[in-house]
Structures are given as structure tokens and as C-alpha cells.
Amino acid sequence: MSEYSFFDAVCKSFDKAAKFTKYDAGVLEQIKQCNSVLRIHFPVKIGDKIEVIKAYRVQHSQHKLPCKGGIRFSEMVNLDEVMALAALMTYKCAIVNVPFGGAKGGISIDPKKYAAYDLERITRRYTSELIKKKFIGPGEDVPAPDYGTGEREMSWILDTFMAMNPGEVDAMACVTGKPVSQGGVRGRREATGLGVFFGIREVCGMPDIMKKLGLEVGVEGKRVVVQGLGNVGYHSAKFFEEAGAKIVALAEYEGAIYNDDGLDVDAVFQHRKSSGSILNFPGATNFEVSSDALEKECDILIPAALENVINGDNAPRVKAKIIGEAANGPLTPEADEIFIEKGVLVIPDMYLNAGGVTVSYFEWLKNLSHVRYGRLEKRFTENQNAQLLEQMEELTGKKVSRTQKDLMLHGPDEVDLVRSGLEETMINATHEIIDCWRANPEIKDMRTASFVVAINKVGTSYSELGIFP
Ligand code: GLU
Asked: CB neighbours (10 Å) of residue 399?
């Protein structure tokens, strides 16, 4: 049996959509291919041994600069995966109107096997390699967190870049997903999960789509299964819980748990932290085989871990009515076909998990403008609101309660602006994709509609750049 190629799977979805666009084969081929591929090996001394580390950075498209995309630390990292993820970044940015080309990086290590000190040296060495090859820089290529990395790794990258580019005034913008104290933006940590929530909520608010699926409009009361309790899965689950949905199952690699009455997401998170496993959570049923959770009865299934978890084998057994791809590439093209046949709505990754890169864009803008969001207007807005309220009270002769007053007076903080910018972005993207789907009765799924939207935007951009003489 031939091995699964993630990049081929992305290209397959691309080809399916390409026929609904106006571009000829040459233009489509240029959009599809990865423009620049960097594969490096470098030595790092771990203990008293030299280890040779294998790593990558792929820039899929430079139709807009800088290129943008996360850096993944995982033993499973390989060139095919990084190429696929870089390509998805191009389409993702296009869909949410983030003016970047797509990129992705990866280091082929299991971060759990290394001490923080060693990870720091590996990350710094990788960054120096990227600097040497011009695969990082505020106007060239801007990494971010991905599977196996987070704020800590981003601050090591920043520090290495600053040390090697002294005096560069925009150096802060060389990487996003940084801690707030290091130039990060408030709201980045939960951005992908919140974007997943906004995207699914928007689709669940469409009466014709819900009717077709036999579901009520809205997310309240929906039964949700989330696979992966990392940053994306945890926050997606939290936002659904807060909106009144029931998280009936949570899965991690060591197993999964189920409770028909709903699980308390924070309590499960704490339980896993203290016991080292998601299993044996009070009141819940254990599944020793983690993937069994994907097959539980539910309204919304959110795979939020890795690619290729729902494929031709298990897709026929999946009972969810909506699948929200919080991870990149969790479904194979075979699974897609099965879900089209079964009438399951798949909300695709390149749109649904774009919240992370959207807020990364806000962070990059903040770094380039050297000012925190809200700093200039917060007090002005509060003073203006106070005057309005005073006038209202005077005219009506009625007093507004203290709690209401606080709400009405509040000027925007950074996190308020970031979240509302994200909400606006996700809502607009949803409508653009759904409108494209509705306008083309031959398009059978939301992934194809998303690809059509993305290809049209990247194609226009290439043409307007005059790149095809
Ligand atoms: N790694 C995230 C993704 O796959 C975020 C990328 C970014 O913020 O640049 O979308």
C-alpha cells in the first residue's frame, strides 16, 4: 500500500476546486506548487553526544510578503507534511484576507524527550539557520507557534533574531505568538480556538443549512466531541461550553472520556495536568482507544490534533452531523467523499482554524506600529461615552445602574479589539464561502467552495503582480 501523502491530499482538494475558477492550467500549477523549500541538518550537543537534527522551512507562495506560518516540533515532521501545511497557509491567509503568503516550518524531534535547556539550543540553532538562508524576517517570513511549540519557543526565536540583527527597529515583527511581555498581542493564545467557535457558530446560525442537517439553529444545547486538549482543542471546547453547548467527549492520545451530561472542560484539563492522563475523570466513562471518541454520537465533532485522523476506514462510522476541522488536514480526501455522500457538513481547516494567523497578523501590525491596540483611543472613548450617558440621564430623568454604566462606559482594551477584529474576520469569511457555494450548485462541499474563494484571490494577486508575462 502506498504511503499517505498530505501534500497530495491538499493538491487533490485544490484540483477539485480549480475547475470552478477561470484560471488556465499554468496559473493553477504556479499557485499549487511550493515556491521555496529549505531542508537542513544541524548538529546540537545533547549531554555528551552530538545529535544531528533534521528541520525544514517551506515557503509555498510569495504572492504576498512576508510569508507566514507556524513551526511544528514533532517526531512525525517530514517534508511532505511541511509542504502541505505551507500550502494550506497560503489558502488560509487568502480566505481571511490576511496579506501574507503561506509558509510552514518543522523540526523533526519529540519535544517531550528533551530538557527545556536543550530545546532552547535546538530552537536557537534552527533560527540562526533560517536567518542565514533568509527564511525569517519581518518582511520575508514570519514564523508562529504550531503543534509542539508555543510562546516560549517564539521568544527564543525573537531573542536569537534580535541578537543577530542589532538595531533593526522592526525586529519584533520577525515572529508572532510571542508572550505579551515580548511584543505579543493579547488574545493570540486563544485565537485559533475562538476562531473555530466563531466559524461554527456562524454556520449553525444559518437556518437552511441547519434544516438540511436536521439540527436546531444556534450552538446552544449542541452535543460536541473534541479531539485534542492542546491550545486549540482546549480553547475551542471552552468557548463552546461557555456558549451553552455540551462537551460530551474529550480525547487525547492516551485515551478518551465520555459523559452524556457534559464534561467540565477546565476540571478535565486540571485532572489531566495533575494525574498525567485524561482517563479516570470522575463521573466519565473511559475509552482506552482514543479514536473511539471520534465515532460517538454527537452534533459537532472537532478534531483539533493532527492530520489524517479521519480517513476511508473510520469515516463510515463517524456519527457527527457537523465536523469542524480545528486541526490542519484531519480528514483525508476519501473521508471527504464519504461525508459528502452521507450528508455530513465538513467545515474545512483552511477557513475554520484561520483565527490563529488572523490574530498573528494583528500582532505583526502591532509590532510594526510600535504601539499597543487601544492605547490612543481607550480614554477618549470612555470620556465620550460618559458625556453621552450624562446627557441621556439628564434628558430622560432616569439613572442607569452601576453595572450597566460600567459596561457602557468601557473603552476598548487590546483584547477587546483583537477579539472583535477576529469575529468580524470569521463572519465575513463564512459568508464569502457560503455565497460562493450557493452560487455554484455543482460544488458539493464547503472545502471545495473555500478552495475556489482562495484560488480566485491568489490568482488575482499573481495576475495583478504581473508575474505572468
Ligand atoms: N500555526 C498556525 C496555523 O496553522 C498559526 C500560523 C500563524 O499564526 O502564522 O494556522
From this structure: 9
pLDDT at 465 > cutoff 80: no
**With respect to CATH, is domain 36-182 assigned 3.40.30.10?**
no
Strand order in the sheet with 101-107: 36-46, 49-59, 101-107, 67-73, 141-145
Between strands 49-59 and 300-303, the pairing is unpaired
Question: Which numbered atom of ligand 1 lies nearest the CA of 71?
Answer: 1
**pTM, 2 dp:** 0.96
Boundaries of every domain in the chain: 36-182, 185-377+412-469
Fold classification of 185-377+412-469 is Rossmann fold (3.40.50)
Task: Give 372-381 pLDDT, tens digit per residue.
Answer: 999 999 999 9
Q: Which of 357, 366, 367, 425 to mutate to test the pocket of ligand 1 (most atoms within 8 A of CB)?
A: 357
Residue with CA nearest ligand 1 atom 7: 357
412 exposure class (CB count in 10 Å sphere: 0-12, 13-18, 19+):
middle
Side-chain half-sphere CA neighbours of 177 within 13 A: 27
